[in-house]
Design brief:
Helices cover about 30% and strands about 25% of the residues.
Length: about 350
């Protein structure tokens, strides 16, 4: 079977052969499936000695007896036991399309990993002149190279970031690493942050999400807290550390401290942590919704401009069903970034 459950031994077996991060864990896909009221699975494929896997969530479409697929939150993309060039990856995604079509899925939305899936496809036409999928670029992500000297890394900070960090230290703000007694304060600050950003309801994770994340990552989860001069939590971030790469997952700052930008001290602390633990890279991610023009992207860019293109793949496996579902919405679709269109609220 091309699609396997999150409990299949093939999934765990492949992870033992590749470099992976949080977004490739079957337990993370299961956690995401709970949030989306879907089913955790993966597309698994073998060609010769190469093994390929795409983490996915299977979702029912409204009240219809049909389903679609999407990547979990973050940057799961596709992992493989052997490196793939662009043409090889395109052929594998074409195979995925055919097998998803045979299984009756309407569409698929796949988030590529900007560090490991840096292919640029010509998705206008394939060899048989039929578009199999579209690649959509969403701006990019930012990372900090941790292989250099600390002084060189910090020299790349923006002047504004340098000033803010210096001021925070002078005001008595301090860094706390893995003080999980602050996790409840982080949850509250995270919700305040999502409200300030008027985030999609999806991002208001339940309390259980944070505990489950802690359990599945175990020692791979790095919780960085910033406290004020009185020892009160004001800002923090959840990072993961897999295979020499630190990934910024979630961040939060309380409303009353936003103007001081304590999250800049948090990222600076993540850099220190990475340097002391021999990490090669701190991946900060991108802006909201993949934007490279919003405040969040500019905040991350201020720590060093190592840029990675970020893209998603959009598959329509069943054109007839897709268009019928789209027509049921009875509305004009004026947001080309949204996919699949029939899920637009």
């Amino acid at each position: 079977m091309p699609f396997i459950t999150h409990q299949d031994e093939l999934w765990v077996s492949l992870l033992s052969e590749v470099k992976y991060d949080l977004y490739h864990l079957p337990e993370f896909t299961s956690l995401e499936a709970e949030l989306l009221h879907g089913i955790a699975l993966a597309w698994y494929h073998e060609k010769g000695s190469n093994k390929v896997l795409i983490p996915l969530v299977k979702r029912k479409i409204a009240n219809q007896p049909v389903y679609d697929l999407q990547s979990p939150y973050g940057y799961p993309g596709m992992i493989s036991s052997e490196a793939l060039n662009t043409n090889e990856a395109r052929k594998i995604f074409s195979c995925f399309h055919q097998e998803a079509k045979q299984e009756g899925y309407v569409s698929s939305f796949i988030r590529l990993n900007p560090l490991n899936n840096s292919w640029h496809f010509n998705t206008n036409r394939t060899n048989d002149d039929t578009p199999v999928f579209r690649q959509w670029f969403h701006g990019g992500t930012i990372s900090v190279d941790l292989t250099g000297k600390p002084s060189s890394i910090r020299a790349a900070f923006s002047l504004n970031h340098k000033r803010n960090i210096k001021r925070l230290v002078s005001l008595g703000f301090e860094v706390q690493i893995n003080h999980f007694e602050f996790l409840e304060a982080f949850r509250l600050a995270y919700r305040q942050t999502m409200k300030r950003r008027e985030a999609n309801p999806y991002y208001f994770f339940p309390d259980s999400y944070f505990e489950h994340l802690k359990q599945l990552c175990n020692e791979k989860l790095i919780f960085i807290s910033i406290t004020d001069s009185d020892g009160n939590f004001v800002s923090g971030g959840l990072f993961t550390f897999f295979h020499e790469i630190i990934q910024y997952h979630l961040g939060a700052t309380i409303n009353t401290c936003v103007q001081l930008s304590p999250s800049k001290l948090m990222v600076d602390a993540a850099i220190d942590f990475g340097l002391s633990h021999k990490a090669n890279l701190l991946h900060l991610g991108g802006g909201i919704g993949g934007s490279n023009a919003d405040g969040l992207f500019r905040f991350k860019k201020g720590f060093g401009y190592q840029y990675h293109a970020y893209s998603t793949l959009r598959f329509i496996h069943d054109d007839t069903a897709y268009n019928e579902l789209k027509s049921l919405k009875c509305k004009k679709f004026d947001n080309p970034d949204y996919f699949p269109e029939y899920r637009m609220s």
